[in-house]
Specification:
The complex is a heterodimer of chains A (496) and B (470). Chain A is of the alpha/beta class and 496 residues long. Helices cover 34% and strands 12% of the residues of chain A. Chain A has helices at residues 2-8, 12-18, 22-34, 90-97, 140-147, 164-170, 204-212, 256-271, 287-302, 320-331, 334-346, 353-376, 399-403, 411-415, 443-457, 468-471, and strands spanning 41-44, 60-63, 102-106, 153-158, 173-176, 196-201, 243-246, 275-278, 379-383, 419-427, 430-437. Chain B is of the alpha+beta class and 470 residues long. Chain B has helices spanning 56-68, 163-180, 220-239, 285-293, 299-310, 314-322, 324-336, 344-355, 365-376, 382-395, 399-406, 413-426, 428-435, 442-453, 459-468; strands at 6-17, 72-73, 79-83, 93-97, 103-108, 111-120, 124-128, 139-143, 150-156, 192-202, 212-217, 247-252, 257-261, 273-274. The model of chain B has no long low-confidence stretch (mean pLDDT 90). Classes of the chains: A alpha/beta (496), B alpha+beta (470).
Chain lengths: 496, 470
């Protein structure tokens, strides 16, 4: 049985359809996750806890910031070290109810603030394609775990690109749904008006399957809503008549080799019958600037509760002020502190209009840009990330360069619209992501589009998991086996 | 000092704890005086990942208040986060309303209402140590039971001109809210909190002076006293050529004095911004209609009606309107009494004089009406009727039965004549003195009759009968 599982375990849907013995399946992945040496997991479950349901016991890796009752949920931050919440997030409850147990908690940038996972309070995650490189962030642990076959699938959160960018850098599929589609209840907040839960999976069908069991109005989240139609498993083979708008290929910061792979994917879209034209999003280029005012502003309030009074580590030499100052000085990492300061400043009396007020107006303009663009096109495609996975440490001293990693992914959450990133090829042996965005509630449309392209692209590259940093990358045509099972990933693998 | 060269300008800010079943943004039950930290949940403890959900009943109560205060209700009001660090504030921000409150531009009596908004209460800090305040406390503990209780904040325009007016406004507001059943409005327990902004200006001046904010006055008496003291302090300051500084003054009910908190300590920048976890509050026509329909007759209107329709003195009408249970009893008794028995004014006097001192009573309005009718018909004397009423208040019952049971019926004319004549015979000295012009001596005769009849006779009637026989 286990032998069978290893043969097929690349796409979660296969597992769901074959309905393998849930217990054995869980054990298989539990062992893999426990043997993780990418630092992708912060905690691995002992027991599968889920109802019987349509997801057939296929375990799911969960980004650390999803609260799971009794399970460490620290949002990648030392300030929540040892914190075990008294309740579970709606997303996790829904997945458990649908039959998917929590496999483990995955590493992330602290409070989801980062694009490389280097801001984790528990050490960076390595990219399974090249261990000297970042997996992207902030959902880097989830992306690396899925890419390395340590988990069949995973959930993460996206605020400015935190699902799509790591999916792109790890060569998997990552989707950010329409704002409100998935309840935020129990998701440790970074920026409430932007945060959204979504799937990280090996293919588009898995993403649709997982998303279908995540979405829905939740009475515990006032901003949640019911999608107008059920999320369907995608089936489109052609893209005849689809009007594709392209944005961002002329941007200065875009690596030429990335642009080239994305262009090739756009060519495939045309081959499937789509028409491709450039669209203008005049204000989208200001997305990063607006984002880095709005998100830190909300974060500065969201993170005020970490004061050492009620939970988490408490440090003090006596009075109230030192309790606050020492707990927060020691508990938060440098990037979190930077954003708290940025946000506090942006909301300060006398500066509010100039920063927060203005950023909100830019946000409205960006949403208007998308609305106007979607009058002419059905979907918008962009590169997901301006570059492939970069070296660990390459951007840590240059916050602005790091922030620009999200150039193409930030406008969508600002507008609240859904977008999915799919791998569309390799550049220098590292995966390149193509982003497909659509208007609010167009989940089925962008999933269908992504699915048809996925078939045409035929991306089969998988990372070398156990080869150490020097072995590096795997060429696109050198997949170890057609099902894409990472070699040597399990403890029972040959050679162990 | 010269007389009144300055005019006080006062506005009040009132916080009202709503008596909803659950807290403002979570499902925890409201409580007062329960075991600490027994009404808490991840939401009101500010656990990571939790989200607020607005309490529909709190919105309903707040709309009732807004309509009772004749406000304009905003079509879409929004919640803001008010950011500051304090251990009684689990999220590090209070969810409140800021630039677009629930309602504006209302009126209660002669006082204009600036705004009405919804927010959540903080938790309760208890400080161990001599000061009872956080500074210098040996230890502080937090009870989160109160945290998240729905609050309505009502802010008036600076329309009040004396401490007395401010207290009277507070009483009217309290009575109004109580009549609506939206709050316990208990100042000592903190379900009604009144802060006052006080400034003075030269009489006739149009601009306002610098104001001081008075906090924590837990009764209307203290409110009045605190404002008086602050007005005097400001007058003295200006009189001595000084300037009033913008200050927050904390009233200490134990010493009855106001202490200035250092202004800098409270110079917060709250960094308000719209609460992204909540959608705007947009009351539907149906919600407004439901709130309107739930409003009772409010005290100001009731006092006016009782004066107009029942011809009651203003003071009595106000008492019945402010203490609705007295008004209800009075009105029910007045209605029960149909064919010409008790006079409404007499009824009102009985309620006011004999029942206003009680918290509760068991008597039926119709029984009260009959008793007052019996007094009018001289079937029972005033003093006997007081005794009967006391019995009725304690255990209910029928006035006629109680009169019979206790033998309290008025002495009849013949019986009384016999007793009067016997008393005059026994008190010959007194009769002589009265005849000799010492009118006061009649008291001894009347007293003897009253003793004999055990209060069943009317003193005035007895006196009349004695004089007839002199």
């Amino acid at each position: 049985m286990l032998e069978d599982l290893r043969q097929l375990a690349s796409h979660a849907l296969d597992l769901v359809v074959r309905q393998p013995q849930a217990r054995e399946l869980f054990e298989l992945y539990r062992e893999r996750a426990a043997a993780d040496d990418l630092n992708a997991f912060l905690w691995v479950a002992d027991e599968p806890e889920a109802d019987e349901g349509p997801l057939a016991g296929v375990p799911v890796a969960v980004k650390d910031l999803f609260c799971v009752e009794g399970v460490p949920s620290m949002a990648g931050s030392r300030i929540l070290e040892g914190y075990r919440p008294p309740y579970s997030s709606t997303a996790v409850r829904r997945l458990r109810r649908a039959g998917a147990p929590v496999l483990g908690k995955t590493n992330q940038d602290e409070f989801a603030m980062g694009s490389s996972n280097e801001n984790s309070g528990f050490g960076p995650v390595q990219n399974p394609w090249d261990r000297s490189r970042v997996p992207g962030g902030s959902s880097g642990g989830s992306a690396a775990a899925v890419a390395a076959g340590l988990a069949p699938w995973a959930i993460g959160t996206d605020t400015g690109g935190s699902i799509r960018q790591p999916a792109s850098l790890c060569g998997i599929v990552g989707m950010k749904p329409t704002y409100g589609a998935v309840s935020r209840y129990g998701m440790i907040a970074f920026a409430s008006s932007l945060d959204q839960c979504g799937p990280l999976t090996r293919d588009v069908t898995d993403a649709a399957l997982l998303l279908r069991h995540l979405v829905g109005r939740d009475p515990c989240d006032s901003t949640s809503l019911e999608l107008p139609e059920e999320v369907r498993l995608p089936s489109a083979e052609r893209l005849d008549g689809l009007r594709v708008g392209v944005w961002g290929l002329g941007e200065e910061g875009l690596a030429p080799e990335v642009a080239e792979v994305v262009r090739a994917a756009l060519g495939l879209a045309e081959g499937l019958g789509a028409s491709v034209e450039e669209v203008e999003l005049p204000h989208a280029g200001h997305g990063i600037a607006a984002y880095y005012v709005i998100a830190p502003a909300e974060a500065s309030a969201n993170l005020a509760r970490y004061d050492g009074v009620r939970y988490g580590p408490r440090r003090t030499d006596g009075d109230l002020l030192s309790l606050y100052e020492e707990t927060r000085a020691e508990g938060f990492g440098a990037e979190v502190k930077r954003r708290i300061m940025l946000g506090t400043y942006a909301l300060s009396s006398g500066y509010y209009e100039a920063y927060y007020g203005r950023a909100q107006r830019v946000r409205t303009k960006i949403a208007d840009d998308f609305r106007a663009a979607f009058e002419r096109v059905d979907v918008i495609m962009t590169p997901t990330s301006p570059t492939v996975a970069f070296e660990l440490g390459e951007r840590t001293q240059d916050p602005l360069a790091m922030y620009l990693s999200d150039y193409f992914t930030v406008p969508m959450p600002l507008a609240g619209i859904p977008a999915v990133s799919i791998p569309c090829g390799l550049a220098g042996g590292l995966p390149v992501g193509l982003q497909v965005a659509g208007p609010a509630f167009s989940e089925n449309r962008i999933l269908d589009t992504a699915y048809a392209l996925e078939q045409a692209i035929g991306f089969e590259g998988v990372p070398v998991v156990d080869a150490g940093p020097s072995a590096g990358r795997l060429p696109r045509d050198a997949g170890p086996n057609a099902e894409g099972l990472p070699r040597d990933a399990g403890p029972d693998a040959p050679g162990r | 000092m010269e007389v009144r060269e300055y005019e006080p300008v006062i506005g009040v800010e009132v916080h009202v704890q709503l008596s909803t079943r659950t807290k403002m943004f979570c499902g925890c039950a409201l409580s007062f005086g329960d075991e600490p930290n027994t009404h808490t949940c991840p939401v009101c403890l500010g656990h990571p990942g939790t989200l607020p959900v607005t309490n529909a009943e709190a919105v309903h109560y707040a709309l009732m208040i807004a309509l009772a205060l004749e406000c304009e209700v905003a079509p879409r009001s929004i919640f803001h986060r008010k950011n500051y660090f304090y251990p009684d504030l689990p999220k590090g921000y209070q969810i409140s309303q800021y630039d677009i409150p629930l309602a504006r531009n209302g009126r209660l009596g002669d006082v204009r209402i600036h705004r009405v908004h919804l927010e959540e209460d903080a938790a309760k800090l208890v400080h161990a140590g001599a000061s009872g305040r956080i500074h210098g406390a040996e230890a502080s503990v937090v009870d989160f039971n109160r945290g998240g209780t729905p609050l309505v904040e009502i802010v008036t325009e600076p329309d009040l001109r004396s401490a007395h007016e401010a207290a009277e406004f507070g009483r009217l507001l309290q009575a109004t809210l109580r009549s609506m059943g939206v709050s316990d409005v208990n100042m000592e327990e903190g379900s009604l909190r009144v802060d006052a902004n006080v400034s003075i200006r030269p009489a006739g001046e149009a601009n306002f002076g610098t104001k001081a904010e008075l906090k924590n006055m837990n009764s209307f008496r203290f409110l009045e006293r605190g404002i008086e003291a602050e007005i005097e302090r400001q007058e003295a300051t200006l009189h001595d050529g000084g300037e009033v500084e913008q200050d927050t003054l904390h009233f200490d009910p134990r010493s009855g004095s106001l202490t200035a908190l250092r202004s800098k300590e409270y110079a917060h920048d709250y960094r308000y911004f719209p609460e992204p976890d909540l959608v705007p509050l947009a009351p539907t026509e149906e919600m407004l209609a439901r709130a309107r329909a739930a409003l009772p007759e409010l005290p100001a209107a009731r006092a006016e009606r009782l004066t107009r329709e029942h011809d009651l003195p203003a003071e009595t009408a106000r008492l019945f309107a402010f203490r609705g249970e007295l008004g209800d009893l009075y009105e029910a008794a007045a209605a029960a009494e149909g064919d010409g028995g008790a006079d409404p004014k007499a009824l009102a006097n009985w309620v006011k004089n004999e029942l206003a001192g009680r918290e509760e009573w068991k008597l039926e309005p119709a029984a009260l009406a009959r008793l007052v009718g019996m007094v009018g018909e001289r079937l029972v004397s005033q003093s006997a009727a007081k005794e009967v009423l006391a019995v009725m208040a304690e255990r209910g019952g029928d006035p006629e039965a109680i009169v019979d049971e206790r033998g309290l019926g008025s002495a009849g004319e013949d019986e009384l004549a016999t007793i009067v004549e016997r008393a005059m015979a026994e008190q010959a000295d007194a009769v002589e003195k009265v005849r000799a012009g010492n009118d006061k001596a009649i008291g001894a005769i009347v007293g003897a009759v009253m003793r004999e009849t055990k209060g069943r006779a009317d003193g005035g009637e007895v006196q009349r009968m004695v004089r007839e026989r002199l």
